[in-house]
Amino acid sequence: MLIGSGKPNPRQRGDLFYINYLPDAQFKLTAVLQTFFLAVNQLNSGDGCSLSDPSKRLMFATLNLKAGRRAIDLCDYNSALKLLESGMSLLPDDHWKSEYNLSLQMYRVAVDTACTLNNAAAVTKFSQEILTNVEAPLEKLHALFCVMKCLRTASKIQESQQLSYSILQQLGESLPRERGDSDLLAEIDSMRTKVLNMPDESIINMKESTRKEKDMLLLGLYSNLIVVMNDQNPKRMDDICLRMMEITVVNGLCALSPLSVALFALVLVSTGDIELAYRLGRLALRLTEKANGQRFLSEVAFFVGGCVSWVSEPLQSVAETNLLGYTNGQQVGDVLSALSNYQFYSLAIYLSGKNLKFCRDTSRKVSESLMQRHYLFLYKQAVVVYRQTAAFIGDVEGEEERPGNFPSWDDLMTHPERSANIDFSFYIQAHLYMRIFILTRDFTNLPNEGLLVRLTRKQTPMRPILWVGVFFEGLVSFHLARLLDDSDYYQQGEAALAFISKWRNSCNNKCNFENKYMVLEAMRLDLKDPDQAEDFYLKAVKSSKENRFVHEEGIASELSGDFYHRRGNIAKSYSFYRNAMECYGTWGANAVTQRLKEDVLEKFDSRQIIAQPIEKYISAVGYGEEPISTTRKRAE
């Protein structure tokens, strides 16, 4: 897995008045802090008689600010905000004139804390104070940046984009260009050449920026704008990533520089420069060990794990990177990045074939946490995984152990954001193809336009859920091409096969792509040259088995069973059907197992057939090149 070797932050979250429960190694520190916090708390809960002296009120306000900062260091943001608000209440009425510096510090820390807690009302209140009373332009823009983040987490994507554009223009930045712009392409290539020729240690040991405050604001703004553009206009993401890398290379390192490197790696994945992309992903994680970057490791791991490392690592390893990102985010109090990683982790373990009960329970925990924190833009995606896994298991909606207020599958299918949010629309479509092919086999509500066509048109950066979605689109298309004798569906299947083949060849990642390529090629040949299809069905089963994709071993085995049944080989057909049912059972997909069991009973009636171990059939098959076409065979 792509993860840095830096030591994890030992701080633990918890209530400030129970600090003595922290590890013994921190006892001396926490004993002093406990006394300090208890003293500040006692002052805040006094009767006010001791606070009639203005100088004492200012001293106590300063103590609350100090206590709030210490609380943030301990990742207790709720207590920090209460302490800061207590400090604000002690300031004089004319504090913006008489105590400007103290007021600015107090409100700056408060708006950051409220933003971390995703408390939109508090962010609005504190930022308005700053915008009205503060003179420094960067302080005003930082407050607006916090508002922009809250708009994004509330799924108010267009408002967030408009505000971010306004901030960029005030900072003298150009608005991002769309992919395809000739100057942009040349600049990306120039930056690619520059980092390609820089040894790893040269990147790690770049000079520190002399304008860190502005760089931090710009990089933070751009990193949030990346998420917004992924939902609204993915074609502008490349220019944003390039600009972040330019700021880092030209100005030097700041705490957010590792994120610049990670996001430029995302651009290189899109351009097909896989080796350099993976190298930069590793370097981004190493860079978090410098320049106080450890507190941003969670955000870096989110992008590296979910958008870069899959090019060279198995999905199981990608999941571990996101899990470590989740852990780090919890340790340093980066709640948004922690839960973003947790959501990616729950998706990755599901896509890699981990037991569905574990996946269902994990995605439910993620959904509940996101709903509790009001992170609406991530919440819907987490619920989709929960509903999908529950359906495969055979749970009945509304009868879960802990029902909650999650939207139903039908609600998600008709959610208004399917038309307003590009990324959510793609996400839903990918899961819909899976649900149709694995479980329902109900093709009546297929999207009018295929996922691959839409991804190509929008030029969305690739990540696992999207290429897995294209794989299932290919399965559905080839199945319907056979069922309906429809050439349009055949061409759609061929396009999906070409797409998977491209990534298989460019990534050289057999674990993620080999069995998917094999099964799609088998289905294609089954329609055009069935004599050559058998080896590819067997290769698909063998590859998925070796790479531990138990659910895809089930799919390949079921399709092999269909193939042998059509050719009248009853023994082989039944053997592969039995293996498919065992795989689905191991996966925990009881509803899928039941669907196949009913199909097998219908095909074989009550005939007594002895299933053979499939190893008997797949042991001798290798992974050769694509078969010689029928035309070439005739010519020879």
Number of strands: 0
Question: What is Rg?
Answer: 28 Å
* Integer average pLDDT: 88
Oligomer: single chain
Question: Per the principal axes of the C-alpha atoms, what is the gross shape?
Answer: elongated
What structural category do the secondary elements indicate? mainly alpha
How far apart the termini lie comes to 47 Å
Strand content: under 5%
Low-pLDDT ranges: 2-29, 627-636
Helix content: over 70%
Number of helices: 32
- Main sheet makeup: none
What's the short story on this structure?
The protein has helices spanning 27-44, 54-73, 77-89, 95-98, 100-116, 120-133, 137-153, 157-170, 182-196, 200-204, 212-232, 237-251, 257-271, 274-287, 297-307, 315-332, 335-351, 356-373, 376-393, 409-413, 417-420, 422-440, 451-458, 464-484, 487-507, 510-528, 530-546, 550-566, 570-587, 590-604, 615-618, 630-635.
Overall description:
By secondary structure, the chain is mainly α. Helices cover 72% and strands 0% of the residues. Among the domains are: 16-135; 522-636. Helix 17 packs parallel to helix 19 (376-393).
